[in-house]
Automatic annotation (TrEMBL):
Signal peptide: 1-17
Organism, scientific name: Stomoxys calcitrans (Stable fly)
Keywords annotated in UniProt: Cuticle, Signal
PROSITE patterns, alphabetized: CHIT_BIND_RR_1, CHIT_BIND_RR_2
GO MF: structural constituent of chitin-based larval cuticle
UniProt gene name: 106089285
Protein name: Uncharacterized protein
Superkingdom per UniProt: Eukaryota
Length: 109
């Protein structure tokens, strides 16, 4: 899972970057897990740490429109869980459906 996240982050950085320079790069892998962090001259930054069960991290960049975008994530046995203001969210459950679900739950055995 970590390899895919790192590859996606690096590809996104490479696509958005023209002649970007690495300003900061730290990486540590040991028997307890790993940690990495990098920052480029074109305002791309990523960091993550974890072990074989859970990875926590974030990545951020500046959009072509100048908007600062940041995504925090956790990847674990239940999957990849990103959180960001820029990610779409599901619409609210319609009131009629919510009432029907509540009725079903209260009348089930």
């Amino acid at each position: 899972m970590f390899k895919y996240i790192l590859i996606v982050a690096l590809i996104a950085g490479a696509v958005l970057a023209e002649d970007a320079e690495i300003l900061k790069f730290n990486s540590d892998v040991n028997e307890h897990g790993f940690q990495y962090e990098y920052e480029t001259s074109n305002h791309i930054h990523a960091q993550a740490s974890g072990d074989e069960h859970t990875v926590k991290g974030d990545f951020e960049w500046e959009s072509p429109e100048g908007e600062h975008i940041k995504v925090n994530y956790v990847a674990d046995d239940d999957g990849y869980h990103p959180q960001s203001d820029v990610l779409p969210t599901p619409p609210p459950i319609p009131e009629a459906i919510a009432k029907a679900l509540q009725y079903i739950q209260s009348h089930s055995r």
